[in-house]
Specification:
alpha/beta; Rossmann fold; Dihydrodipicolinate Reductase, domain 2; 5-stranded mixed beta sheet; 8 helices; elongated; binds nicotinamide-adenine-dinucleotide
């Protein structure tokens, strides 16, 4: 049995992770930590949400899952490295400097970390297909759509996709725009190359479309998430396998290939 602790257990994703862990035959939900939901009981269990991560030490968690907010996740990740507890992180909004710091921290820890901007298998494939297509097109833009309570923009998936596309090709056409009528009309620019447009719409969970264009043709690669359960097979894969991948692993790809 894998003993799993959940950071942010009172949140939307955290609660869904708790439910998935409770339903997984090879996992046991041993603790949940969420200072804003401390004292509440996780649905369909007798796990009472704790206010701080010492609950993971007391319950001897093997691995934690983190779907919180980036400022909290930064501390949680450092805490897991210092306490030699594996961590699977879905929280988005980390900078390149953050990831460099965690790579260093987990080289010296007995534990490993997996940080993935998107745990949906379809989204992971979308990123891979976009990276594959990038060298064959000169223009590309990303449209990402999320629910209206998402507080960071662009989404972690959009930034990760843009970074991978920018790394796969340096041959992007210059933006011809010289008059901006409404600020932000051309979106955010990632890696000086890919424009990313963020839509926040009630009713949406998470969608992304990567649009690529070259002479006489366009290619659109689109992924839609209809329910938070779509992330759970990826999260459980991470929980089961994070122990095999030394140090810091970024993205689910490594786990899918091995
Ligand atoms: P949410 O606001 O519903 O939940 C966040 C929870 O974190 C809240 O309950 C909050 O109380 C808790 N929290 C805050 N500080 C904490 C701390 N120090 N310790 C423990 N818990 C703490 O948000 P959500 O919709 O569940 O999303 C959470 C994160 O997951 C966001 O960054 C979102 O972008 C990301 N996300 C990632 C994926 C993915 O596949 N990687 C999928 C969906 C959402």
């Amino acid at each position: 049995m894998i003993r799993v602790g959940v950071f942010g257990g009172g949140g939307r994703m955290g609660a869904t992770v708790c439910e998935a862990v409770l339903a997984a035959p090879d996992c046991e939900l041993v603790a949940a930590v969420d200072p804003f939901h401390a004292g509440e009981t996780v649905a369909d269990s007798d796990v009472v949400i704790a206010k701080d991560p010492t609950a993971f030490l007391e319950s001897e968690a093997d691995v934690t899952v983190d779907f919180t907010v980036v400022d909290a996740a930064r501390e949680n990740i450092r805490w897991c490295a210092a306490h030699d507890i594996h961590t699977v992180v879905g929280t988005t909004g980390f900078s390149v400097d953050d990831l460099d710091e965690y790579a260093e921290l987990f080289t010296h820890s007995q534990a490993n970390a997996l940080i993935a901007a998107n745990f949906a298998i379809g989204a992971v494939l979308m990123m891979r297909f976009a990276e594959l297509a990038a060298p064959w097109f000169e223009t590309a833009e990303i449209l990402e759509l999320h629910h209206d309570r998402k507080i960071d923009a662009p989404s972690g998936t959009a930034v990760a996709t843009a970074r991978r596309m920018a790394a796969a090709s340096q041959e992007w056409a210059a933006d011809p725009t010289n008059t901006i009528v409404a600020e932000g009309a051309r979106g955010g620019i990632v890696e000086d190359a890919i424009h990313v447009h963020s839509v926040r719409l009630r009713g949406v969970i998470a969608s992304q479309e990567v649009m690529l264009g070259t002479t006489g043709q366009t290619l659109s690669i689109r992924h839609d998430t209809f329910d938070r359960s779509s992330f759970m097979p990826g999260v459980l894969l991470g929980v089961r396998r994070v122990g095999e991948f030394d140090g810091l692993t970024i993205g689910l790809d490594a786990l899918l290939d091995a």
